[in-house]
Amino acid sequence: MPYYLRHITAALFLLASSTAAAGQSFEAVGTRAAGMGGAFVAIADDASAAYWNPAGFASGNVFTLVIDHGIAKSDPDAREGVREGSGFLFAMGIPALGLSYYQIRSTALTENGPTVRLDTLVTHHTGATLLQSIGGRVVVATTVKVVRGIASSGVAADGAREALLEHAGELGGRSSTKVDTDVGVMTVGSFFKVGLTIRNLTNPEFETPAGNSLSLSRQARAGIAFTLAPGWAVDADFDLLTTHETLGDVRQIATGTEARLGRKALIRGGFRVNTAGSDAVAAAAGGSYQIAGPLFVDGQITRGSDRASHGWGISARFVY
Questions:
Q1: CB-based contact 13:296 (threshold 8 Å)
Q2: Of 80, 207, 108, 126, whose CA–CA distance to 164 is shortest?
Q3: Residue 144: what are its φ and ψ, rounded to 5°?
Q4: Looking at the 3D structure of the chain, how many domains does it have?
Q5: Which residues contact 160 (CB under 8 A, 6 or more apart)?
Q6: pLDDT recorded at residue 197
Q7: Which of 18, 90, 151, 184 is most buried, taking the most CB atoms under 10 A from its CB?
Q8: pLDDT value of residue 218
Q9: Number of H helices, E strands in the chain
């Protein structure tokens, strides 16, 4: 057995009955959204709306489908610790109904003197979204989802952090299933859209074999988007709640833009800032190419400061 696994296994113990936030960031899923720096709540007009703002299914598309994958990680050498995660999304919908499955994996490594603590949570979300129009301009959507979580915690001697992160999943975890709800609202004007989304409404908790719990923080984000010209939009998003995660508090402000470039391509870019006290600043760039008819391929890359997550994403998107 590798030395880092021996350290983890030997030090696995009852970490206390406290509940820690799992650190599954709002930007964990969605290549198109990430390419705009995470400013997407008021745009959300494809099937990734299942995650970003379920009211976006009512955007007017007859049918939309997205398959998406992305990864992100902060600097492993940061003194406070490191966060890494990945996400996968499959979603489809019509204006009145959406169906979705997404998986998010997050691991937080936090320093505590000569040792580090590893908290890993893998969540599988299977949901159905129902939408209701109010007065023709306001749409309210509710996603009821079954969430299966696999949670684990352990401690190890600090050092070889990349190896510790790579093998964190080998600690073993405890699986449990919860029912949760997301809510989205969107209103559309002549040249603007306003959106609001609340995720993880019940703040579900998942117990680890060590006896503590990891939770999904309730997240609330509002956004406003403007159409500056045909094919060109800008968006600004604001977290309404501060989430208390393992590596510190998070409250993001994000802004981004998306513009058509020629007949088949789109480009996008944006940045976000954590206003809750850390120096986490991230910038992103992305683009799309229309392969044929309603089929697009999207990509994005994100870079930033040491405490911000660096990553990439790719997706296939069908919009009809």
A1: no
A2: 108
A3: -100, 125
A4: 1
A5: 4
A6: 98
A7: 184
A8: 96
A9: 4, 19
**Residue 269 CB: number of other CB atoms within 10 A?**
18
**Between the CA atoms of 256, 261, 263 and 264, what dihedral angle is there, to the nearest 10 degrees?**
-60
Length of the chain: 320
Nearest to 237 by CA among 83, 66, 32, 33: 33
Print the domain residue range for 300: 3-319
How far separated are the first and last CA of the chain, in Å rounded? 52
The answer to whether the CB of 256 falls within 8 A of the CB of 63 is no
3 state SS of 59: helix
Beta strands 192-199 and 174-188 are antiparallel
Query: Which CATH number do you get for residue 146?
Result: 2.40.160.60
Q: Rounded to 5 degrees, what are φ and ψ at 318?
A: -115, 120
Q: What's at 66, amino acid-wise?
A: V
44-66 per-position pLDDT tens digit: 999 999 999 999 999 989 999 99
- Beta strands 213-215 and 19-21, pairing class: parallel
Show the low-confidence residues of the chain (pLDDT under 50).
1-17
DSSP state at residue 161: H
pLDDT in the model for residue 254: 98
